[in-house]
Amino acid sequence: MNPKLLLGTSNPGKIEEFKNLLEDIPYELRTLNEESCTIDVVEDGKTFMENATIKAMQYAKATKLPCLSDDSGIEVDALNGRPGIYSARYGGPGLNDQARVNLILQEMENIPFEKRQARFKSAIVIAWPDGQILSAESTIEGVINYKPRGKNGFGYDPIFYLPELDKTSAEINSEDKNKISHRGKAIEKIIPLLLNI
Length: 197
What we know:
Elements lengths: L3 E4 L4 H10 L6 E4 L16 H16 L3 E10 L20 H11 L9 E11 L5 E12 L15 E3 L4 E2 L5 H7 L1 H14 L2
């Protein structure tokens, strides 16, 4: 019987992505819901890595299971790096993904294409109840598109344009996206570390 690995997120899009990225590892993937874990984690770190570590450690302690958490988001050069670590809460608690996308487009409506650089960043941490930690991070560079395109993905994917593919992140199928995405590349780095334990 495979050991359990908790996915420390309640975001359905991330859960699905993690399950696809981790399908070949010899662990039984569990969600917070399946483990009846309802603790409220305060993400008060100053970086993606600090927030991912806070989440993984607190969920691991609460459930007595190793926990994989990530903190990721988008940094937009023309917005001085915003929304950054506040990506999931940008604009306040009342906004959904589409409203946050619209807010960024509104803030950037007069910015020319050559100044619309942005990047997705992901920090991934696996923590054990005894305090042991593994971590990895990755980045993917792109441009903020003028309007949303595509239905695949979540969050800021519909406006994150990849010039080399002439597609937004939401226009790429899941399999291809997992090969190039910030989260996919960070998971790729951390799996060998996990399998060596």
